[in-house]
Amino acid sequence: MSRPEIRVQGLHKSFGDNHVLRGIDLEIDQGEVVCVIGPSGSGKSTLLRCVNLLEEPSEGQVFVGGTEITDPDVDIDAARRRIGMVFQQFNLFPHLTVTENLTLPQRRVLGRGRAEAARVAAENLARVGLAEKAAAYPASLSGGQQQRVAIARALAMGPDVMLFDEPTSALDPELVGDVLAVMRGLAEEGMTMMVVTHEMTFAREVADRVVFMDGGVVVEDGSPDQVIGAPRHERTRHFLSRLL
Ligand code: ADP
Ligand code: MG
C-alpha cells in the first residue's frame, strides 16, 4: 500500500507582482521518484523550495509524511530535518574535510555525538562511493565528487525525502554519470525523491512519474513513457523538441 509522502495542495507563490506558482497540486508516494521538467523560469526551483519551506508559500498547503508543514504551529526545524536537499551548487565548506562537512550538521542540528556522527558520515560516504576521500578537502575533488559529498551530507541527516534541484547542471559532461548513478542507487533503495532535471535519459529510466511545468502550473503529470514519449500537450511537445 502506498501513502503520499509529499502532498502539495493549491500552492501559490508570488514574489511581489510576479505570480510564479499558480495553483500546484501534486502527490508523491513513499518510495516514488518524480522528475520535474520544464523551461527556465517555470517555477521548478520555487516549487522545491516551497516543499522544504526555504520559501514561504503565498497560498496553499504542503504536507510531508502526513504533517502539514505549512501549518504555522508546526515545528519547522523538525519538519525540515526530514527533507534532504541537493542544489546545483554543492555549497561544501572549503575549510573542512569531507568527513567534517558531513559531521558538522549532524552534530549542530541533530545533536549527535562525535563518534556517532563520524560513523554515520563513513557509512554515507561509502554509499556514494567516496570512502577513500574522507580526509580530503573539497577543492581537491572533482565537481562530480563534490556533488556526491553533498548528497552524502544530506543522507547523513536521515531524511525521509530527498529533493534535487538540477544536481548535474553545473558539472562537466563526463562527471554527470557518476552523480546520476548514485541517485539511481538511492531510487532503487526506495528513497522518495523529487528531482528537477534536464537529464531525459535519467527521467525515462529512473522516474516513476514525470511532471512537466510551464508558467507556474503542472501541464502534464504521468509515466515517463507517456509524458516524454507521447506528450499530450503542445507545450510539452514544444519543450521536449527543443531539448533534442
Ligand atoms: P525555474 O527553476 O523553473 O527556472 P524559478 O523557480 O527559479 O524557475 O523561478 C521562477 C520565477 O520566480 C522567475 O521569474 C524568478 O525570477 C522568480 N524568482 C525565483 N526566486 C525568486 C526570489 N527569491 N525573489 C524574486 N523572484 C524570484
Ligand atoms: Mg531552477
Describe the structure.
Residues 6-240 form the ABC transporter domain. It is found in: Cell membrane. Pfam families: ABC_tran. It comes from Streptomyces collinus (strain DSM 40733 / Tue 365). It catalyses: a polar amino acid(out) + ATP + H2O = a polar amino acid(in) + ADP + phosphate + H(+). The chain is an alpha/beta fold and 244 residues long. It has a domain at 93-158. It is 38% helix and 26% strand. The strands form 2 sheets. It has a 6-stranded mixed β-sheet, sandwiched between helices. It has a 4-stranded antiparallel β-sheet with strand order 2-1-4-5, covered by helices on one side. Helix 4 (114-127) packs across helix 5. The longest helix is centred in the last third of the chain and has 16 residues, at 173-188. It starts with a strand and ends with a helix. The model has no long low-confidence stretch (mean pLDDT 96). Bound molecules: adenosine-5'-diphosphate and magnesium ion.
Determine the fraction of residues in helical runs and give it as a percent range.
25-40%
Bound molecules: adenosine-5'-diphosphate, magnesium ion
Please tell me what the overall shape is.
globular
* Mean pLDDT level: 96
Give a short account of the largest sheet: 6 strands, mixed
| N-end to C-end Cα span | 38 Å
Q: Which strand order spans the largest sheet, edge to edge or round the barrel?
A: 6-7-8-3-9-10
- Helix and strand succession? EEEHEEHEHHHEHEHEEHH
**Count of DSSP strands:** 10
Radius of gyration: 18 Å
Regions with pLDDT < 50 over 5+ consecutive residues?
none
The tally of helices reads 9
Proportion of beta-strand residues: 25-35%
Q: Give the helix/strand class.
A: alpha/beta
Pfam families: ABC_tran (PF00005)
Catalytic activity: a polar amino acid(out) + ATP + H2O = a polar amino acid(in) + ADP + phosphate + H(+)
InterPro entries: AAA+_ATPase, ABC_ATPase_HisP-typ, ABC_transporter-like_ATP-bd, ABC_transporter-like_CS, MetN_ABC_transporter-like, P-loop_NTPase
Domain ABC transporter: 6-240
